[in-house]
Design goal:
Chain lengths: ~120, ~120
Amino acid sequence: GENVEQHPSTLSVQEGDSAVIKCTYSDSASNYFPWYKQELGKGPQLIIDIRSNVGEKKDQRIAVTLNKTAKHFSLHITETQPEDSAVYFCAAKRDRGSTLGRLYFGRGTQLTVWP
Amino acid sequence: KAGVTQTPRYLIKTRGQQVTLSCSPISGHRSVSWYQQTPGQGLQFLFEYFSETQRNKGNFPGRFSGRQFSNSRSEMNVSTLELGDSALYLCASRPEGLAGGHEQYFGPGTRLTVT
């Protein structure tokens, strides 16, 4: 099955700085890559996603890049704010076949933004 | 549009008992998946239901089961509870069949504690 690895496990940045979280995956058939933000006591919230036919996608202060050849994708958060502090998860899945609905998650990155 | 709802939010059970958790997906979503989240194992896929049929199952023992009703609401059941079943159980729904359809939206989870 798919194996998703995520680094770093913890990340501390000063408010206003950028944060980058990286993930690798093993299954070349994976072609949908979402990122989730989970705050304490809440479920994961989808913040951005990318399909394998796209190399980069931006939404205001967050962006995701995908290198399908190298099987890695990254989350970039610019101008970080204290409210960005949370655990971030990357995930991968196929868009067809028997595992269509199954997300494979990384282990998460605890991001702390210091004011 | 209302998000994914899960009931109850918190549950305390004793070893050997059984438990049933409930999930109501976003209106119009027919795919419902369940995940277990623990500090040690992270987010792990339990199963996925679509149109009242289990379409995919993760690597969990048979004590974990689920079902989906004609209105897409889903329940999962854990029998003969063990201490290791203590976790946050998350439900996610997906708008399969609509444009895109890959995005999974999570509920707040049910925190199960087994004593």
